[in-house]
# Entry
Amino acid sequence: MINQRVERCAREIIENPYSFYEEIRSIDFMYKGSFFKYPGWYVTGYEEASAVLKDHRFQTRMPLPDTTKKYETLKNIQNDMMLFKNPPDHTRLRMLVSHQFTPASIEKYRPFIEKIAIDLFNSIKSKKKIDVISDFAFPFASLVIAKIIGIPDKDKHLFREWALSLIQSIDLTRSRRSIVEGNKTTLEMLSFFKDMIKKRKQSPQDDLISELLKQQKDGELSEEELLATIVLLVIAGHETTVNLIGNSLYCFLTNRDEYKKLKENPSLIKPAIEECLRYESPTQMIAREASEDIELNNVRIKKGDQVYVLIGAANRDPKQFQNADVFDITRNPNPHLAFGSGIHFCLGSALARLEAQIAIQTLCQNTACIHAGTAEVKWRELVGFRAMKEMYVSFEV
Ligand code: HEM
# Structure
């Protein structure tokens, strides 16, 4: 019954997933059901979610079925991404780039990221009303990842359409049309990056593409894997970060006391962003498949069963977090699962954290006040991600 209601009320769930999570959590922390036509185990408990993500018997898997040639290019590229690989290929692909994303490697971008934030803020501060997503978060996160990967600034506008299309094609709300669209987008991206790779082969720069090309020469990375890694980093590297910045500002606009606390005490920025990650997690769901029969918390999961870890729910599990539905920027400890856990733990977490801290601090410390431009926020039609379409605000500087 709950399944049918979910289909009927999809829009309501997208607007506010938390009462839906609470409802299924009250039935079971590991709920067996079928939402959005995808049968499997829906995990809402923190302990259970953590256990699934750390257990190698729950493997990552390709999001699309093997049925038609209409989206072959999309499927092939996903097949070469570390995100959808298990060891040993996963370990090899991740090791090739992981050193570039450690907190120490990321720290060297701090002055560059701070400059982007302040330049962008200066260009929008006098406008009557801005859309935080398209006027600030998106150009900010795109410029950062474009610099790291080695994409010219003039091409960064392409990222938005690419990300909107590819994210829609992996979400549970996807339609056949969005998958075919995703295939078209992949073809465009491949043509763009093949051209860039050719240029970097002729004249290497101090960027991630040139670095990966060295590893390709050493035979550690195939041409397809090189392309898939770049596509994954461009999409993962800006989409969820845009959402983290938008969601963080939303948390502050709807929790004014916490905003005041941050304004009066800027050193709270790190725990504040951790709380935004927990409270409005940009990634809401991670999918796994059982590679064998598994018993977990007294339930029997059969080989081949799909497991949907609802991290947005786990991050509000009252068994793990006191006053889980309260936004509290001084929460300590805050062991949220917003970046996942286990071997697929987000590679870009240090970068995402630094970007969000700088973006929110820039807005908070350079304005006297930020006002919500409209009463309601529009959320994108996704269940695996918490992402705003737009959010209008105005500043008093
Ligand atoms: C707020 C921003 C971000 C959030 C919430 C986020 C969230 C996540 C999550 C939950 C996973 C695990 C997926 C799984 O286990 O199936 C993941 C993996 C990943 N993320 Fe992020 N991410 C963010 C930003 C970034 C950035 C900035 C980058 C890169 C520059 C990045 C690159 C990756 C990659 C490559 C993986 C796959 C890692 C692997 O399979 O080993 N992410 N991310």
User: Anything to note?
Assistant: Residues 223-253 form the longest helix (31 residues). The first strand starts at residue 30 and ends at 35. The domain at 2-396 is CATH 1.10.630.10 (Cytochrome p450). The radius of gyration is 21 Å.
